[in-house]
Write a structure and sequence with these properties.
Layout: E1 4-9, H1 13-26, E2 31-36, H2 39-51, E3 55-62, H3 70-80, E4 85-90, H4 95-104, E5 109-112, H5 117-176, H6 181-195, E6 200-205, E7 210-212, H7 227-234, H8 241-253, E8 258-265, E9 270-280, E10 284-291, H9 293-342, H10 349-379, E11 388-391, H11 392-409, E12 413-418, E13 425-428, H12 430-446, E14 452-459, E15 469-477, H13 498-503, H14 510-520, E16 526-530, E17 534-545, E18 560-563, E19 571-575, H15 579-591, E20 595-599, H16 602-612, E21 616-620, H17 628-644, E22 653-658, H18 664-671, E23 676-679, H19 684-695, E24 699-701, H20 704-725, H21 730-741, H22 745-752, H23 760-771, H24 775-785
Parallel strand pairs: 1-2, 1-3, 3-4, 4-5, 12-14, 19-20, 19-21, 21-22, 22-23
Antiparallel strand pairs: 6-7, 6-10, 8-9, 9-10, 11-13, 13-17, 14-15, 15-17, 16-17, 18-24
């Protein structure tokens, strides 16, 4: 049996045999030499030898090997067996690999290939000498520590003897002295005070002398609980003595009080105490310890509750991220292909109508998904303000245009009033303010059958900060009103008033989200209502005047039909694991003149990037094999290496595509090398805008009249359906209204069968609305005819 084993690692058998032969010629016979052809095999050998109690002083490893590299092996050995000496043989190894081994494996030496036999063997001998020298020093240190521990115990025993002798001497002195009467009375009073206390009170000096005040700490516990004894014992316990007397010395020289907590182990429980240390004359310290077990227990319970809440919040965030991806990705395809198909110039009118129905339904579903996700983000604390400058007048105009048609269909008067003294442009979160106004206006129109809806904006009061203005927004309607007992339920998620439940519309999220958004912007929504007269919602938020209003591009409403003649025809790479997502972008981009290639994962994207050299990559983030994060990092690393090598490199523009709803992911995407990002689902307009922003691309646009015609097609279609409804019998119309209100699809289809054959268009239109979950549109159309009973 050998005393120790040297392990040589190389993937070439010839090299291993040469190493073994040379080492045997120069080393003592007490060392056995084991050979391993891979890092994995070497680790197994080391584990087996250690299990048998055999010493391994040295490992010599090649760097370039299949599987585990030499530096990885040596770092792993160092983490498991740090005392083993390690030598690396380098041939084509990089400086990074050697540096990793030096830093991570505490490398003893590295020798370049081919090596000199004498140099190798001298290095090995020196490593072995160093190893066994360290081993002998460790044994000597252990013996010294044992001796020191024995000596310390003797010191403690001697100290205890001296303390006992000192206490005995003090007792003899006390017995021989007679105190004066005044001192005796004073002592009795002081003792009475102490005996009324339940704290542990000690007087301790720097030499370790401890005086115990006659308090009654056991009054709150069992008389058998030795709280005083346990506390005093802590001063002399091994491992505690130095720490506790250090605190005494600090308190003896510090005019400020010191506090620290400690615990005492009783038979069936642990008690916690908070000790207050105060300086007394003659470098002594007053020690007052009070029971804080209840507080500690509450803190522990609070910490456990916090950990449970954090775990639940993390689980919720994970679910939210997954649901966002699973819901928004297919919606991206649905809405995207609707936009793509609507670009066709030879679509039949019926097919164009069907596409508009599909698009409306998709947008309706997207709005519902966004409401749920917004609420979840708010509750998880994952939503923040995005302050930007914009035109207040343009925002109000946009909101008004959204509700004009609905108000007209219901015969309502829509009034928008903006005070003259308001700044033309302001800075706040435009998206959230717009959503709040939309939610409030939508509710007002939904629950108002006659009269008017008014949105008033004014400046109120003075803001403590001179550069801010307090804006008040007020939405008032003449609707059914809200009962007083239901006002407290308005802003609870998924909660609806009686009127809302009877309408059988909505999710009960709109007002909850609006309230949370307003609070985030620094305000609070207030509501006043009178049943039968109407309701007014109002809120006030601080904003800053902006120097420049948002710019409205002239071509914003025009559709891109081709690249401009002077615009470069860039090569674009679309990367997404879903075929339908890729096809959406490929067809859209090819339709205007770009050269487009596609890849189904990050690995294939890397290959195409290296061979085809695209100017722009649309990079999906969540993909199998290699995701967008890794692919982006590798592209940026490759560009950096080529640049360091002196090549003229034009970095590719990488725009991330993500279905995530979390804003913090944007920072991660930008930090790994993405130039920009898009949230799914996206519109063709934003795709072309991003290309123009990053590549300076310019386009040819469709004539504005055709765009306007398409935008008005849906309104014209609805008007024609409303006209056809007026030709049906009143009872049939009433039955259809009730069935649509109840979302009774079966009853609606039975009523559709009663429509005469010469009104097929009405049949198809109502069927399409049912199939796309738009029963609310049927209700609106019937109400617009004025043929329903109140």
């Amino acid at each position: 049996m050998y005393n120790s084993v040297i392990i040589c690692v190389d993937d070439e058998t010839v090299v291993l045999e040469s190493l073994k032969e040379q080492l045997k010629r120069h080393l003592d016979d007490c060392h056995e030499i084991e050979l391993a052809e891979s890092g994995e095999e070497a680790l197994e050998i080391i584990e087996d030898l250690y299990a048998e109690g055999i010493d391994i002083p040295l490992v010599i490893s090649d760097q370039i090997m299949p599987g585990m590299k030499g530096d990885e092996l040596l770092i792993e050995i160092h983490s498991l067996y740090p005392k083993i000496m390690k030598i690396m043989l380098t041939g084509q190894a990089s400086a990074d690999a050697v540096g990793n081994a030096l830093n991570g494996a505490n490398l003893y030496h590295y020798i370049p290939k081919p090596w000199d036999e004498t140099d190798l063997c001298l290095t090995a001998k020196e490593a072995l000498r160093s190893y066994f020298q360290d081993k002998r020093l460790a044994q000597q240190n252990q013996e010294l520590q044992q001796f020191a521990a024995s000596l310390e115990q003797k010191v403690i025993e001697r100290t205890t003897e001296l303390t006992q002798a000192n206490e005995q001497l003090q007792a003899e002195v006390v017995e021989r002295r007679l105190l004066e009467e005044k001192l005796l009375v004073s002592e009795q009073k002081l003792r009475a005070v102490f005996e009324a206390m339940t704290d542990i009170v000690l007087i301790v000096d720097e030499q370790g002398q401890i005086e115990v005040a006659p308090t009654q700490p056991t009054r709150l516990y069992s008389p058998d609980d030795p709280l005083l004894d346990l506390t005093i014992e802590r001063f002399f316990q091994e491992g505690e003595r130095d720490n506790w007397f250090d605190k005494i010395q600090q308190a003896a020289t510090n005019p400020e009080e010191m506090n620290f907590d400690y615990s005492l182990d009783l038979r069936d429980r642990v008690l916690w105490f908070s000790a207050t240390l105060s300086r007394l004359p003659n470098r002594t310290v007053l020690w007052v310890a009070r029971d804080i077990s209840d507080r500690k227990q509450a803190e522990t319970a609070l910490q456990e509750a916090k950990e449970v809440a954090e775990a639940a919040n993390q689980a919720k965030s994970t679910f939210l991220a997954n649901m966002s991806h699973e819901l928004r990705s297919p919606l991206n395809v649905i809405l995207g292909f609707c936009q793509l198909m609507s670009r066709s110039t030879n679509l039949q009118e019926e097919h164009r109508d069907n596409i508009q129905i599909m698009n409306r339904s998709g947008q309706h579903l997207l709005a519902l998904i966004n409401n749920v996700l917004d609420l979840s983000k708010i509750e998880a604390g994952r939503i923040t303000l995005e302050v930007t400058p914009f035109s207040l007048a343009n925002l109000l105009k946009e909101v008004r245009e959204m509700f004009n048609l609905k108000a007209e269909n219901k015969g309502l008067k829509l009034v928008f009033a903006q005070a003259t003294e308001l700044p033309p442009s302001i800075q706040t979160d435009k998206v959230k303010l717009r959503q709040v106004l939309i939610n409030l206006m939508s509710n007002a129109i939904k629950f108002t059958e006659r009269g008017s809806i008014a949105l008033n904006v004014s400046a109120v009061g003075d803001d403590p900060q001179e550069d801010r203005v307090q804006l008040r927004f007020e939405v008032a309607d003449t609707g059914a009103g809200i009962a007083p007992e239901e006002l407290n339920l308005l802003f609870e998620a998924f909660s609806q008033t009686t009127t809302g439940q009877e309408a059988k519309e909505g999710t009960g999220l709109g007002l909850a989200i609006a309230q949370k958004f307003v609070r985030l912007m620094g305000g609070e929504i207030a509501v006043t209502s009178t049943v039968g007269e109407g309701t007014t919602f109002s809120f006030t938020i601080p904003v800053r005047p902006a120097s420049n209003a948002e710019s409205e591009p002239s071509a914003a409403s025009q559709r891109v039909i081709a690249l401009a003649p002077d615009s470069p025809r860039d090569r674009l790479l679309v990367v997404d694991d879903r075929w339908d997502n890729r096809q959406l972008l490929v067809k859209l981009l090819e339709s205007v003149g770009f050269e487009v290639e596609e890849a189904s994962n990050g690995e294939k994207a890397l290959e195409i990037w290296q061979s085809w050299h695209p100017q722009v990559i649309w990079m999906d983030i969540r993909m199998p094999i290699m995701d967008g994060y890794e692919a982006t990092k590798r592209i940026r690393q490759a560009e950096l290496k080529r640049k360091e090598a002196g090549e003229d490199v034009s970095p590719v523009t990488i725009i991330a595509l993500t279905a995530s709803v979390f804003d913090e992911q944007q920072e991660v995407l930008l930090s790994i090398g993405c130039d920009d990002f898009l949230h799914k689902p996206f519109t063709e307009k934003i795709i072309f805008e991003k290309l123009s922003q990053h590549r300076g691309t310019s386009y040819l646009y469709e004539e504005s009249s055709s765009v306007t015609m398409e935008e008005n097609a849906e309104d014209a279609e609805l008007d024609s359906i409303s006209d056809l409804l007026t030709t049906m019998p009143p009872q049939w119309t009433q039955d259809l209204y009730e069935a649509a209100n109840a979302i009774d699809n079966e009853q609606i289809f039975q009523l559709i069968e009663q429509i005469p054959d010469d009104r097929d268009r009405l049949k198809h239109a109502i069927a399409d609305l049912v199939n796309t979950f738009c029963c609310d549109r049927i209700v609106d159309l019937i109400e617009a005819t004025g043929k329903i009973e109140s």
